[in-house]
């Protein structure tokens, strides 16, 4: 069929298999130019189909030659109805891995459930024995708790006070003021239940209990801090509480992995256009100004450049770069550089519907957003028929 983007709010209901494949190939060729000699060998990536998780998987496989197992939650294709982008990304990843002679298997299901954890353990036992790196890169609006069965929903709200600032509808370029009401009821604990560290810890407990973690195992989860201007809705908001919890969980997991000499880290990553970040108010406007500034300074990175730097300079470096006072890996260092933040703050004052196309990189934002679904990818002929029924092999 011929596949076009079908937008509904902040999501795109369709995905293009050829565009997704091209994105995966581009990421692979980036890491192939940055080989990692002493990298991981057997890797589990939880949240492996899009964003930072997919780029982590590509870096491990094509940068370090690792065998990878990916876990994710994606929609399969139906006749006349496309799969989700993460599904097509994985179709392409498996195809490329198979050409390169790399082991790759994937599990499509709810990573929060006991069943998917058990299925993953069984697969590791059967094929790999153990894993030496576990990447935890889930981003989800909901989590069904495996013990209580309660369905927790995360929210993106400030705490105590309402918050007003500018925001952009990146489809139309219209900048408006948005006011977000503070969290109420169980918003904070619910958000922590979904995006905090409990499930990360449950994964590591299950893997350790099953004896499928290698000595010196490393596990990494991803966090975000961001600029002062998004603090009320991000780091000091409900999601920030979940990130505090996630970060505190790293120390607990390291303690539990003592007998294996294992370590758990949190890496604080840069703001990037992903399906998750486009849903946060104010953040897309910030990102479009940030992109403009970072591109002008020649320090812009996408998820693959970020993950490659994480592996090279931190996780597998002979002399790992310094961590911050809280023990976190900081690959948001270029985003938070003083000159970058000062430039963004200056642009923020003058940004409006009239000025955004000159002072911001709205086009870069939109292109990246469309790219997430395999659209607007250079070199793809969108007038050509493609097979929507491409399946993971
Ligand atoms: P993403 O939406 O691109 O990826 C989320 C992944 O989780 C996908 O593979 C998806 O299939 C999987 N997933 C979601 N629910 C699942 C479930 N129930 N079971 C199994 N898999 C499930 O997100 P992302 O932006 O790459 O975010 C990954 C992590 O990085 C998050 O912790 C996020 O907070 C963090 N982070 C993001 C940014 C950013 O700007 N995007 C910046 C810093 C840190
Ligand atoms: Na991810």
From TrEMBL:
Catalytic activity from the UniProt record: a 2,3-saturated acyl-[ACP] + NAD(+) = a (2E)-enoyl-[ACP] + NADH + H(+); a 2,3-saturated acyl-CoA + NAD(+) = a (2E)-enoyl-CoA + NADH + H(+)
Enzymatic class: oxidoreductase
Positions of the Trans-2-enoyl-CoA reductase catalytic domain: 81-316
Gene3D superfamilies found in the cross-reference section: NAD(P)-binding Rossmann-like Domain
Binding of NAD(+), residues: 47-52, 73-74, 110-111, 138-139, 243, 272-274
Gene Ontology terms for molecular function: enoyl-[acyl-carrier-protein] reductase (NADH) activity; NAD binding; trans-2-enoyl-CoA reductase (NADH) activity
Domain Enoyl reductase FAD binding: 324-386
Pathway stated in the Swiss-Prot or TrEMBL entry: Lipid metabolism; fatty acid biosynthesis
Binding site for substrate: 224
Enzyme Commission identifier(s): 1.3.1.9
Record keywords: Fatty acid biosynthesis, Fatty acid metabolism, Lipid biosynthesis, Lipid metabolism, NAD, Oxidoreductase
Listed GO biological process terms: fatty acid biosynthetic process
InterPro entries in UniProt: Eno_Rdtase_FAD-bd_dom (IPR024906), Enoyl-CoA_Rdtase_cat_dom (IPR024910), FabV-like_NADH_b (IPR050048), Trans-2-enoyl-CoA_reductase (IPR010758)
Family the entry assigns: Belongs to the TER reductase family.
Binding partners and assembly: Monomer.
Protein name: Enoyl-[acyl-carrier-protein] reductase [NADH]
Species, as recorded: Chitinophaga sancti
């Amino acid at each position: 069929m011929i596949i076009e983007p079908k937008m509904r709010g902040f999501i795109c209901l369709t995905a293009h298999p050829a565009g997704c494949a091209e994105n995966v190939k581009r990421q692979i060729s980036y890491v192939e130019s940055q080989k990692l000699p002493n990298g991981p060998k057997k890797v589990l990536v939880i949240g492996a189909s899009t964003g930072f998780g997919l780029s982590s998987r590509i870096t491990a496989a094509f940068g370090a030659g690792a065998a990878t197992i990916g876990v994710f939650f994606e929609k399969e294709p139906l006749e006349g109805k496309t799969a989700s982008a993460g599904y097509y990304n994985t179709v392409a990843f498996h195809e490329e891995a198979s050409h390169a002679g790399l082991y790759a298997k994937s599990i499509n299901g709810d990573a929060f459930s006991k069943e998917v954890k058990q299925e993953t353990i069984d697969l590791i036992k059967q094929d790999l024995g153990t894993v030496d790196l576990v990447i935890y890169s889930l981003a989800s609006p909901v989590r069904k708790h495996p013990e209580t069965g309660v369905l927790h929903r995360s929210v993106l709200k400030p705490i105590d006070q309402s918050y007003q600032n500018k925001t952009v509808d990146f489809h139309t370029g219209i900048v408006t003021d948005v006011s977000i009401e503070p969290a109420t009821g169980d918003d904070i604990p619910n958000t922590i239940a979904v995006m905090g560290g409990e499930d990360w810890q449950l994964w590591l407990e299950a893997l350790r209990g099953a004896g499928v973690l290698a000595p010196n195992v490393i596990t990494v989860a991803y966090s975000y801090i961001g600029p002062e201007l998004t603090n009320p809705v991000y780091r000091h908001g409900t999601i920030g509480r979940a990130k505090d919890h996630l970060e505190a969980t790293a120390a607990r997991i390291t303690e539990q992995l003592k007998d294996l000499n294992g370590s758990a880290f949190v890496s604080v990553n840069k703001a990037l256009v992903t399906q998750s970040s486009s849903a946060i108010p104010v953040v897309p406007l910030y990102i479009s100004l940030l992109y403009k500034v970072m591109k002008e300074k020649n320090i812009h990175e996408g998820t693959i450049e970020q993950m490659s730097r994480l592996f090279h300079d931190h996780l597998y470096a002979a002399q790992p770069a310094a961590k911050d006072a809280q023990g976190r890996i900081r690959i948001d260092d270029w985003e938070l550089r003083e000159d970058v933040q000062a430039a963004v703050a200056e642009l923020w004052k003058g940004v409006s519907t009239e000025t955004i196309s000159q002072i911001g990189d709205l086009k870069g934002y939109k292109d990246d957003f469309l790219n997430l679904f395999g659209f607007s990818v250079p070199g793809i002929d969108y007038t050509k028929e493609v097979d929507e029924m491409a399946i993971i092999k």
